[in-house]
């Protein structure tokens, strides 16, 4: 149980640091203001929930990547010092990584959800939609901080690290669908639908979009790859496949970061 | 009180250590034994391999070949050997919103109860009022002093101090050096890197000079002066570098 106890202690102190952090307060306030602003301007919980889809798909990964990479670079000297203590690398990584992601997820969930509470609560279906938004946003936070951690370990130059997370975000959030569409039109005479489905599984933001829009029953907003995916598999099968792929996305960057951390020279 | 007993393994034994980063060879076969009750200064120009050698002992850098034993235990066998090492980094950084007391509490959770000798160092470094303030409001010098206290917290038999007095005021610098000497007299094995030559003259019993990843000189300060014919340490080290470059 020594390992679990080391992770718990390191995580506990990271949590104490995060709870007093101005950055985390700002992070909560950003989502709180967006949620509150949308509720006040639309006047309806349903419309607000639909508008929050784009917040989750675009803003959450961007903030997780940028905040994650800056946090990791700022804490690099501390991490190195902790590595000189009698604690296994994998336990140190787990404690530090949980100390970054758990407060971010909690702050995101609170910021997004609290305004609904003081505006009169939500009906059953709306509650499920909000939970899906918070759940998928949390998965995207995990993906973003995982990728940010990999880059911060791999590149000691913080300018390079920050540049690469921005390229990662632009690639997956903005360019991916357009590039796929370009590929389809360029190879229109070939059977490219299956390749397209494969491409969709490579993009966590597309996967989250697909699950969200299925939950919200708003197929008109699926985007090109999402529409093909749903047509091919039908909505139930598509949902299961997308969820499975997203779970893989949630695990893979963190696992890769841990492997890199274990063998990296600091 | 002595930290080592007769017949106990040497604090640190480095054998045929090699390390390269890509095409750059940083350590090219280091053999070094560090003894109890001795302060060893590792010196050399930038890029000589000092930091990589120290990081290898601390387990931060994985050597390509060779071995390092701490108190007789190969460091590849686990992390427990680090309980015997106190490390003071050149640029200490701690979570901005935590305090010195919280860092001590965390280390106690990882190591076990602290030795009470650190209270003397706390007093001599005049840190009493600073340990409840978050690190974000503390000056670089105060963080450095807290890093020193954390390195000495568990009364470790091996101390690794990387530029320990850089950024300290003269009073604190003198207090820290007194403490290092006191611990040496108690039997501690201390490794020191410093560009402040006065520190080396005051603290070092032994000088290990590295150049291009190899040990080019290993001996006492007086031996260095005799070997180079230079009375002043700065001139003696410069003479070593120039001699090797020629």
Q: Major sheet of chain A, described briefly?
A: none
| Assembly category | heterodimer
Tell me the number of helical segments of chain A per DSSP (H or I, 4 or more residues long). Answer: 10
Mean model confidence by pLDDT of chain B: 89
Please indicate the percent range of residues of chain A in DSSP E strands (runs of 2 or more). under 5%
How much of the sequence lies in strands of chain B comes to 15-25%
Low-confidence stretches of chain A: none
What is the succession of H and E elements of chain A? HHHHHHHHHH
Structural class of chain A: mainly alpha
Number of domains of chain B: 1
Q: Nearest-angstrom radius of gyration of chain A?
A: 20 Å
User: Which segments of chain B are poorly predicted (pLDDT under 50) over 5 or more consecutive residues?
Assistant: none
Mean pLDDT of chain A: 88
Rg of chain B, rounded, reads: 18 Å
Coarse morphology of chain A: globular
- What is the number of E strands of chain B? 10
The secondary-structure class of chain B comes to alpha/beta
The CATH fourth-level homologous superfamily of chain B: P-loop containing nucleotide triphosphate hydrolases
Structure explained in plain terms:
The complex is a heterodimer of chains A (266) and B (246). Chain A is mainly alpha-helical and 266 residues long. Chain A has helices at residues 2-19, 22-42, 45-74, 76-83, 89-118, 124-154, 158-186, 193-201, 204-216, 224-263. Chain A has one domain (2-263). Chain A has 10 helices and no strands. By secondary structure, chain B is an alpha/beta fold. In chain B, a hairpin with a 2-residue loop joins strand 1 and strand 2 (24-34). The model of chain B has no long low-confidence stretch (mean pLDDT 89). Chain A binds chain B through residues 5-6, 9-10, 13-14, 16-21, 74-78, 80-81, 83-88, 263, 265-266, and chain B through 21, 55, 58-62, 79-83, 85, 87, 89, 91-98, 102, 105-107, 109-111, 134, 147.
For this entry, give a set of tags.
heterodimer; A: mainly alpha; 0% strand; globular; B: 246 residues; alpha/beta; 4-stranded antiparallel beta sheet
